[in-house]
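Morning F.,

Quick status update on the modeling queue. The single chain you submitted on Monday has been processed. Sequence for confirmation:
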Amino acid sequence: MSELTHLDEQGKARMVDVGAKAETRRVAIAEGRITMSAEALSAIRDGAVPKGDVLAAARIAGIMAAKKTADLIPLCHPLSLDAATVDFAFEESAVRVTASASLSGKTGVEMEALTAASVALLTIYDMAKAVDKGMVISGLRLIEKRGGKSGDWRAED
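Structure tokens below.
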């Protein structure tokens, strides 16, 4: 990209004007993982974490975060999402979070999907830290985006 779109002619920060852009269907999917002890993983899987249902809380937190992304990330447009999802997969020593956001609009939803995944991961940490303070959040990334001027994109594994 040859132009820094979040800066005006004087180099001052601005929100990009998307008023003239066409509305298209836009989808973004992000993922991350939180590595933990076998004890913490079992407690989450078995619903035995003292604070309650870790994944239910993380799912709600992630969806709420997607809806509030513009309040958290400077210069993001406030978006009216059509959908946001947060899903979990147990791995050998981790929980993988996959979050998606979608809408029909003039700007992408990559930041919403990334924010949802981030906050879901942080919520897992918060809910399970009594069992394992050494959990590690890693691998947060966009894995797919569809729609918009730049078209479709998928991360290489």
